[in-house]
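Lab notes, practical 5.
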Amino acid sequence: MARRLTWTEQGSSDLDGFGSYIARDSRVYTADFVRRVRAAARSLLEMAERGRIVPEYRDASLRELIVGNHRLVDRIKPDEIGIVGVIHGARQLPRLG
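Output from the prediction step:
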């Protein structure tokens, strides 16, 4: 059974927020950043477990991929890969849903 990719409200909000922040300096960099994050998220459909387990939580279903200076955090379920957050690598992870 193939999993589907979903974005939580928080994950979408995080990506929009970073896009808006980067856009203050360059719309080109914003488009590139959003494209890279979305491509990384889609890549999880091929191999969901390829991201490392998030060290702060030690939960095998909560994983992350590094995209530039950001952490793309996802939760793996039997039928879904949910993007739960996009966090700058210099920040601590908040409580994730």
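Observations recorded by the TA: The mean pLDDT is 91. The beta strands are 4-7, 52-53, 62-67, 70-77, 80-88.
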